[in-house]
Amino acid sequence: MKGKNKRNTLKPIMKKSMLAVLGLGIALPVAGSLPQIQAGAIGPTFEISRPVLNEGISWMSVSSTPSNSSSPWPSRVTAPITVEENNFITIDLSNHFPSDKFSFISAQSSNNDIASADVSQSQDHSKYTLVVVPFAKGMINIKLTAQYKASQDPNVQLETIEDNIELYISKKGDFNNDGYVDSADAVELLSYLRTRSFLSNRAINRADIDRNGTPELAKDMKAFMQGYIEGSLGAKNNSYVLTFKQVDDAPYAFNGKLNGTMQLGQTITGTFAQLDVDEDYAAPAKYQWYTATDVNGTDELAIEQPNSAQYTIQNADVGRYLILKITPVSNSSQSPEGKTIVIRGMQAMEGPPPPP
User: Fold this and answer.
1) Hey, which residues does 148 pair with through a beta bridge?
2) pLDDT per position as a tens digit, 65-107
3) Which of 341, 324, 237 is nearest to 288 (CA)?
4) Are 76 and 61 spatial neighbours (Cβ–Cβ below 8 Å)?
5) Which of 115, 170, 182, 221 could form a disulfide with 36 if both were Cys (CB 3.0 to 4.6 A apart)?
6) Is the preceding peptide bond at 35 cis, omega within 30 degrees of 0?
7) Is the pLDDT score of 11 beyond 90?
8) CA geometry: angle 208, 232, 139, nearest 5 deg
9) pLDDT digits (tens, 9 = 90+) for 183-198
10) Which helix (H) or strand (E) holds 140?
């Protein structure tokens, strides 16, 4: 269609008979299509539409609405999502980053034009709060950074850890997130409400036009049509839908040790402490044993054996140094691997002790 704006060729939303079946009782414009309204224009205020939802972040409440915030992880204490009156969000980090184990907690947004992210700290340094201020539609990554104390040893070296989460911001009514509120949104919204083909909290949140916490075919389609006709959706409205989402972060391994006597026939066991900031259930770590001619790993040779935290010293190992490399693994859907730690035996493996 040369010379024409394809965006202006609108999809028909639904016939009057379908509206009658749904009991909406709302008349459509001529030809059964909805003119475009830009969805991204922002006025003097930015309104956070409640509820704000969370998808998959185990340390955070599922919803900012108390009645809908019950956690799928009932044994865990979850931090509430609080929508403040000045249209910003606060989330208590005290349980996620307890002050006896973490310090120097900070937050960084990947795009401050969409939303800013900072951490406020109480005067006694006992409480940290994530503060998120949204400005526009889009998606940002929020990187939480903290210093982790792996043990109570006063001389222990602090480790820097990261926890990433995403925040999705969309204009209320812009279901397909293309920057417009029009018949295309109505068609996709209707299809989703009829089939519920994908049940992510992000989709649920965008489909909940009447903002009662539950997408429903008749109610939310009626709310969409009424909002469109009355001008409470689109550019004249500054209401935005927000959903936090988990990012699978790799776990961390600390305090690796080799336990046992470096002698022929003895079994050596590798141990370590694992931290998974996503609070997933830990998956079995990956272990690889090596021998070398010195403690620095010169002439390192891999030992062929099943993945195991234990190794029994063989005749060929005598006079060499034992090395273990451990890679922590998350049990999340993406199963990311953490940074491998290297544990070195500090003395050469010896032969059997002399007879008495």
Assistant:
1) 102, 159
2) 887 666 655 566 799 999 998 889 999 999 999 988 898 999 9
3) 324
4) no
5) 182
6) no
7) no
8) 55
9) 889 889 998 998 876 6
10) strand 138-148
Chain position carrying tokens 């401050």: 112
Return the residue matching tokens 């204490």.
77
Of 150, 149, 148, 101, the closest CA to residue 257 belongs to 150
Selection from 201, 195, 203 nearest residue 177 by Cα: 203
What angle in degrees, to the nearest 10, is found between the helix axes of 217-230 and 183-195?
Answer: 170
In the chain, domain spans: 6-246, 252-344
DSSP lists the bridge partners of residue 180 as: 38
Whole-model pTM? 0.83
Among candidate residues 290, 250, 298, 292, the one with its CA nearest the CA of residue 270: 290
Q: Return the pLDDT at 19.
A: 45
Mean pLDDT calculated for residue range 295-322: 96
What φ, ψ does residue 299 adopt, rounded to 5°? Answer: 55, 45
Query: What pLDDT, on the 0 to 100 scale, is given for residue 257?
Result: 94
- CATH architecture observed for domain 252-344: Sandwich (2.60)
Residue 28 phi/psi, 5° resolution? -90, 160
In degrees, to the nearest 5, what angle opens at C-alpha 289 toward C-alphas 288 and 294?
135
Q: Which residues contact 155 (CB under 8 A, 6 or more apart)?
A: none
CA distance 228 to 210: 12
User: Which among 241, 199, 289 is positioned nearest to 46, based on CA atoms?
Assistant: 241
Measured at the CA of 214, the angle between CA 213 and CA 219, to 5 degrees, comes to: 110
pLDDT tens track for 12-28: 444 443 444 344 444 44
Across the range 110-125, mean pLDDT stands at 91
Q: Is the separation of the CB atoms in 247 and 334 below 8 Å?
A: no
Comparing 60 with 7, the larger pLDDT belongs to 60
